[in-house]
Design brief:
The chain is globular, with a radius of gyration of 22 Å. The chain has about 290 residues and is mainly alpha-helical. The protein has a 3-stranded antiparallel beta sheet. It starts with a helix and ends with a helix. It is built from 13 helices and 3 strands, in the order H-E-H-H-H-H-H-H-H-H-E-H-H-H-E-H.
C-alpha cells in the first residue's frame, strides 16, 4: 500500500517535473468489482437476448456462436451466479463498514451513494445549465446520475434477479407460489432485462465514455486515478472539501501505469463496442 510519505514524495517529484498530479478515486476492490460486473452483464445480455428475440435471424446466429441455445443458457446461469455473488459481497462490505467499523459515511455524506437533498438540487441546476439558464452544478464525489445507475443495479437484482431465480428453480418456488406468478415472472424478467440492457448500453455508456468531455473513454474505473484538472473541473466541490479538510496530499497518487491504461482501453473498447452492437441488434429486432 502506498504510504502518505510516499505519496508526498511522488507529488513533489511530479511538481518538480511539471507533470500533472493524480488522485485516487477508486481502490482495487472497486476496480476489480467493476470489471467483473461488466463481464457478467455482457455475458447475461449476449446469452439472454437470443432467447428474448428468438424469432430474429441474428438470434439464431448469435446462439450458434455461443454453442447453441443450451450453451447460451449455461452461460446465462454462470453469469447470473457471478453477478449475484458480486451483489452479496458488496452488501456484506457495506454492512461490515457500518456495523463493524462504525463508519457511517456509506449512509450519508459526500461519499455516500444514498440519494440526498443536494442531488435533487444539483439535478435541477444541471437541467438549467443544459438550457443556458445557470452555471454548471458543483458536484462532489458522486453525482446524481451515478447514484441513479447504482440504485438501478439494486432494482435489477431484486426484479430481474428474483424473477430469474423463479424461472431457474420453478419446482422449489412452486411450493409457495401459485402457477400464474411464473407467467408474470417470465414477462418481467424479459422486459426488465431489455430495459436494463438498453439503458446501460446507451445512457450509462454516454455518461461514462461517449459525452464530449470523456470521449472516447473514461479510464478512471479501470485505473482508479483521476487527473487533477478533471477533479477540479468535474467535481469542484470535492476538490474544495479535500483541500479544506487537508486531505489532498492523502488522496494524491502516482500516475496510472502504462499497463493499467492499456488494459483499461482494451476492456473499455470491447465493452463499448459489444454494447453498441447489442443496441443495434435490439433496434433491428424491434423495428423489422
Amino acid at each position: 500500500m502506498t504510504t502518505a510519505k510516499t505519496r508526498k514524495a511522488a507529488g513533489a517529484a511530479h511538481e518538480s517535473a511539471g507533470a500533472e498530479r493524480y488522485y485516487q478515486r477508486f481502490d482495487r476492490y472497486h476496480r476489480v468489482t467493476h470489471v467483473l460486473l461488466i463481464t457478467s452483464f455482457l455475458g447475461l445480455a449476449f446469452s439472454g437476448l437470443p432467447l428474448r428475440f428468438s424469432d430474429s435471424p441474428w438470434a439464431a446466429t448469435l446462439a450458434r456462436f455461443l454453442g447453441g441455445f443450451e450453451a447460451a443458457g449455461l452461460i446465462h446461469r454462470f453469469c447470473a451466479i457471478l453477478m449475484i455473488g458480486l451483489f452479496v459481497a458488496h452488501v456484506a462490505r457495506i454492512v461490515h463498514q457500518v456495523y463493524v467499523r462504525k463508519d457511517f459515511s456509506a449512509l450519508w455524506g459526500p461519499t455516500s451513494m444514498v440519494p440526498q437533498p443536494r442531488d435533487l438540487r444539483e439535478m435541477y441546476e444541471h437541467l438549467r445549465y443544459f438550457v443556458g439558464l445557470g452555471p454548471r452544478p458543483r458536484f462532489d464525489h458522486f453525482t446524481y446520475w451515478e447514484k441513479f445507475d447504482y440504485w438501478a443495479v439494486f432494482w435489477g437484482m431484486f426484479i430481474i434477479g428474483g424473477s430469474g431465480l423463479m424461472l431457474w428453480f420453478p419446482t422449489a418456488f412452486a411450493l409457495v407460489l401459485p402457477g400464474w406468478v411464473f407467467n408474470i415472472a417470465m414477462l418481467v424478467h424479459g422486459e426488465e432485462a431489455l430495459l436494463a440492457v438498453g439503458f446501460i448500453f446507451t445512457i450509462h455508456f454516454f455518461n461514462g465514455h461517449l459525452r464530449p468531455e470523456k470521449f472516447p473513454m473514461d479510464l478512471v474505473a479501470f485505473t482508479g486515478k483521476i487527473p487533477e484538472h478533471e477533479l477540479k473541473d468535474e467535481r469542484p466541490a470535492e476538490w474544495e472539501r479535500l483541500a479544506l479538510e487537508g486531505r489532498l496530499a492523502e488522496s494524491e497518487s502516482t500516475p496510472p501505469s502504462d499497463g493499467s491504461v492499456v488494459i483499461g482501453r482494451v476492456l473499455g473498447t470491447v465493452a463499448v463496442t459489444l454494447g453498441l452492437l447489442m443496441v443495434a441488434l435490439i433496434v433491428f429486432a424491434l423495428v423489422r
